[in-house]
Design a protein that fits this description.
The chain has 22 helices and 16 strands. The protein is of the alpha/beta class. The termini are far apart. Bound molecules: pyridoxal-5'-phosphate (PLP).
Length: 497
C-alpha cells in the first residue's frame, strides 16, 4: 500500500513520502503528515531479536512506501555505522528505577544524530527518484544541536549546500565551537542577533518566499529543510521507541504487551511526536510525558488547552529546549482536530497574529495520552547532583529536565509502570552546567579543564566529538541581524542581491 502525505494546511493535495522529504515544508507553510498511521507488520517478540538497523527497516518501510527495499536498506546502513560509538546505536541503560534510552552516541553527541545521520541519504535518494536537477540548499535554524548534526550529515554531500542559523548568545560553548569549526566546502554557519524563535521564524519566512524561490530556481537551487518539520527526520525518530520496547522485552524487564511510560525532554515537539507515532504504530506505550524547562509553554498548553507564546523567553541550562513556538505541535493539533486543515489554519493564523490560540474541548479530550511537566533551573541541577551521588551516573541538563519531571509525575500519580526517559545529549556537550550542578566550585575551571574533570568523575571516555574541537580551526565567523537573513542567504549562494 502506498502511504501518502498531506499538508496540515491543505485538505486536497497529497504528495509521496519522497516528495515530502524533498520539500521539507509544504508550499502553504504547513507540515506534512501521513494520511493514516500504519501498523507494524512484525510482533514485538520478533523485533526483540533484531538489530537497530533491522528495526529501522521494519519501521521506516511503513512510512516511506515509495522507497524500494534496496534504497531504504542502503540509507539505513550508510547512516547507522561506525559514526556511532556503539554497535547497539541507542543503548538502554538502567539508572535507579528508570531506563535511559541514550540517543547521543552519534557523531555530534546529541539525539539529533539519530535522524540527521540518515536524512542526507533519504534526501539524495528522494532527489534521484524525483529527477531533481537543482542543487538542494538545506536551510536550518538551530537551538544548538540540529545545526551541528545537520552540518556533519551534509558536509561535502554532492549536490547539496547547507546554511545554518544559530542564536549568537543562545547556545553552549561546546555547541558553538562544534558549529564554527565545521569543515566542508558546502557548509555555512551564521550567528544571528536574536533567539532561536527568531531564527526559526526567519527560516520559515524564507521557505514561504515565492520570489526568492524563483530566483533560486533560476540559479539552479532549491531549498529543503533539515529541521524536525521534515518527515525525513520524524520517521527515523520513531525507530528508537520501537527499539527501546523490544530491548526491554528481550532483557526480560517487561512482559510482552506490558504498558510502559515514556518521558521526553521537549523543545520543538519533534521527539515526543515520534513517540506518539510509535504508540499509534502499535508499541504498548501508556503515557507520553512532555517535559519542559522554564520555557513551559507546552506544560501550560496541556494544562489549559491554551497555547500562548506571549511570555518572556528564558535562557536556560538546557538551551536546545529554549523554544516558545514548538513547530511540530502543529501536526498534533491537525490530528486532534480530526485531520481538519481549515481548523488548523485558523489556529495557526491566531498564533501568528496574536501569539496564542485555544483548542476546543473536543480536541482537548484527544490529548489524554499526554502529560505535561516542567523543571526549574534549580530542580534540573538537583536531579543531576542527586543521581550522581546515588548512582554515579552523570546526565546532561536536557535529560535532567525529563528526569525531574519523571520523578514528580511518579510521585504525584499511582503509576508504577516501567519508564523510558529519552536521554538526548551527552553530558560533555553541556559540561559547565552539568559540573556546576554537581559542585559550584567547578565554575572556576575553563572549558577543557571542566571536560577533563567530568571525565575523571564519570569514568566515561571523552567522546571524539569533543576531542575534535579542542584545537580545531575556526572556519565560520559570519553574523547577521534577523532582518538580514534573506540577504545573507543570497550572498552565500552568490545569487544577485
Ligand atoms: C533538540 C533537543 C531537544 C528537544 O527535542 P525536540 O524534538 O525539539 O522536542 C532536547 N534535548 C536535546 C539535547 C536536543 O538537542
Amino acid at each position: 500500500m502506498n502511504l501518502l502525505y498531506k499538508s496540515t494546511r491543505n485538505a486536497d493535495k497529497t504528495v509521496t513520502a519522497s516528495e515530502a522529504i524533498l520539500k521539507g515544508l509544504a508550499d502553504d507553510g504547513g507540515l506534512f503528515v501521513p494520511t493514516s498511521v500504519p501498523k507494524l507488520e512484525v510482533t514485538m517478540k520478533e523485533l526483540a531479536g533484531m538489530s537497530y538497523q533491522e528495526t529501522a527497516y521494519e519501521v521506516m518501510k511503513q512510512f516511506l512506501t515509495d522507497f524500494t527495499e534496496e534504497e531504504l536498506k542502503h540509507c539505513i546502513n550508510s547512516a547507522y555505522d561506525e559514526k556511532f560509538d556503539t554497535e547497539v546505536i541507542a543503548p538502554l541503560v538502567k539508572v535507579g528505577d528508570t531506563y535511559h534510552l541514550e540517543l547521543f552516541h552519534g557523531a555530534t553527541i546529541a539525539f539529533k544524530d539519530m535522524a540527521l545521520s540518515i536524512l542526507p541519504h533519504l534526501l539524495t535518494t528522494a532527489a534521484k527518484k524525483n529527477h531533481v536537477k537543482n542543487d538542494i540548499v538545506i536551510l536550518t535554524a538551530t537551538s544548538g544541536d540540529t545545526g551541528k548534526a545537520a552540518l556533519a550529515g551534509f558536509a561535502d554531500v554532492h549536490g547539496t549546500k547547507i546554511i545554518v542559523f544559530y542564536p549568537k548568545n543562545g547556545v553552549s560553548k561546546v555547541q558553538e565551537l562544534q558549529m564554527v569549526t565545521q569543515k566542508g566546502d558546502n557548509t555555512s554557519v551564521v550567528a544571528i542577533h536574536g533567539n532561536f524563535d527568531d531564527a526559526q521564524t526567519g527560516v520559515k519566512k524564507l521557505f514561504e518566499d515565492k520570489e526568492l524561490a524563483a530566483e533560486l530556481e533560476a540559479a539552479g537551487f532549491q531549498f529543503s529543510s533539515a529541521n524536525s518539520i521534515n518527515i525525513g527526520r520524524l520517521v527515523p525518530q520513531v525507530v528508537y521507541y520501537v527499539y527501546a520496547y523490544a530491548k526491554l522485552l528481550q532483557n526480560e524487564e517487561i512482559a510482552d504487551g506490558e504498558l510502559i511510560d515514556v518521558v521526553v525532554p521537549t523543545g520543538n515537539f519533534g521527539n515526543i511526536l515520534a513517540a506518539y507515532f510509535a504508540k499509534q504504530l502499535g508499541v504498548p506505550i501508556s503515557k507520553l510525558v512532555c517535559a519542559s524547562n522554564e520555557n513551559k509553554v507546552l506544560f501550560d498548553f496541556f494544562q489549559t488547552g491554551v497555547y500562548d507564546r506571549n511570555r518572556e523567553f528564558v535562557l536556560t541550562s538546557s538551551p536546545s529546549m529554549d523554544i516558545l513556538i514548538s513547530s511540530n505541535l502543529e501536526r498534533l493539533i491537525y490530528l486532534i482536530a480530526g485531520a481538519d486543515a481549515q481548523k488548523n489554519n485558523e489556529l495557526m493564523a491566531a498564533l501568528k497574529s496574536e501569539g496564542r490560540y485555544e483548542i476546543t474541548a473536543e480536541m482537548k479530550e484527544k490529548l489524554a495520552d499526554f502529560v505535561g511537566g516542567f523543571a526549574t533551573e534549580e530542580e534540573t541541577a538537583k536531579v543531576i547532583a542527586d543521581t550522581f551521588s546515588q548512582t554515579g551516573y552523570i546526565m546532561d541538563t536536557h535529560t535532567a529536565v525529563a528526569a525531574h519531571v519523571c520523578k514528580a509525575y511518579k510521585a504525584a500519580h499511582a503509576d508504577a509502570k516501567k519508564t523510558v526517559i529519552a536521554s538526548t545529549a551527552s553530558p560533555y556537550k553541556f559540561s559547565r552546567s552539568v559540573m556546576t550542578a554537581i559542585d559550584p566550585k567547578y565554575d572556576a575551571l575553563e572549558e577543557f579543564a571542566l571536560i577533563d574533570e567530568l571525565n575523571h568523575l564519570s569514568g566515561v571516555a571523552v567522546p571524539n566529538a569533543i576531542e575534535e574541537i579542542r584545537n580545531a580551526k575556526i572556519r565560520h565567523t559570519r553574523e547577521c541581524e534577523v532582518a538580514d537573513m534573506k540577504a545573507t542567504v543570497k550572498d552565500i549562494l552568490k545569487v544577485e542581491v
